[in-house]
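Supplementary notes for students who missed Thursday's class. We covered one full example, reproduced here. Read the sequence, then the structure, then the short commentary at the end.
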Amino acid sequence: MAETEAYHARFELPALRAGLGQPQAIERAARMADEWNPLLDGALMAAYRRQQELAWTEHQVEHIETALEEAGCSPDRSGFRPWCSWTWWGTPG
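Structure (token representation):
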């Protein structure tokens, strides 16, 4: 729905306001939209990839947090993290 409204506002309305008839406005809007499609596709893929990166990073952080909890390094209620024998490469020290 939002894409249709954007197409109408960005491509069809300017052509109609310029005095073109409905058939000519639709034809002109279609040509103009074809030029924008590669840009829109690139923006959509960039947004998707960023969301994918965020999901993968969150997944990795969950693994790290689980390893810390299993090593006894989870924070107490005050947020204090006690020292533990867990090292940065993931094996007990």
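Commentary. The longest helix spans residues 22-70. Residues 2-70 form one domain. If anything here is unclear, bring it to office hours.
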